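Hi U.,

Before I forget, here's the chain from the pilot set. I'm dumping it here mostly so it's searchable later in email.
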Amino acid sequence: MNKKNPAAVTTAKRSRRVLDDVFKTKVVLEALKEAMTLNELASKFEVHPNQISQWKAQFLKNASSVFSGPKDEKRELERLREERDVLHKRIGEKDMENEFLKKNLRKLNLL
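Structure:
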């Protein structure tokens, strides 16, 4: 950690700030207002203009998930539950196979 900036990660060459999602959202919303240029925003928030452009593009790309989130999340959750059930069934089958093989190997004195 850096004494000047507690959110900085120190590397051998220089320290790197770790910016949280709230800060990034604040910057992107300011950029979307278009009241200031990217260079003015970059100076104000002390980040590179290219970084603001990347955050803005990422934000716009994922903006639809705000409205479709719960439906997609429910479908994904159900799919994962079904997959988990199938995997649990397979594990049970493999356990039974292993026990059967161990039992028969003991009978043949190979285990």
